[in-house]
Structure formats: C-alpha cells, structure tokens
Here is the input.
Amino acid sequence: MKAFIFVCVGNKMIIEETKRSLHDALCVARNLIRNNSIVYGGGSAEISCSIAVDAAADRYPGVEQVWIPLNSFGFTFYYLSE
Here is the structure.
C-alpha cells in the first residue's frame, strides 16, 4: 500500500518539520500495532491533578470551594514559571 502526501509551503524548515511529524505519527501507529498498550501523556497528569483538586474542593461549602482550585492553580503556575 502506498500513500502520497503533497506539502506546498514557503520554506524548507516547515517541510522538514512536516517530515518529522509524519515519521512520529507512523512510529506511533507501528508501535500500537506491535504492542496494544498506551502510555498516557500530553497533559494527562495535569488533567488528573485538576480532577483531584475538584474532588477535594467539593468537600468544602461556600467560597472555600472556589478558592481551593484557584489557589492550587496559582501554585502550579508559580512552580512552572521557576
């Protein structure tokens, strides 16, 4: 089976980046065919933390329920900026 992809862009850097992206996508597809397990990434840790913070905030009534997620995300941005 053959497939052709035509990329028309203005500079060589975008062509090279497209080649790398296609290679990465093909490697992911190949690895999924060989081994049907997935390692989560791409923000899954952040989403898991967000779900845990929301669950913890549900235990507090009133204004504190809103403050807990805002406070935790403030600390997150502080540590990411360091």
Remarks:
- The chain has a mean pLDDT of 77.
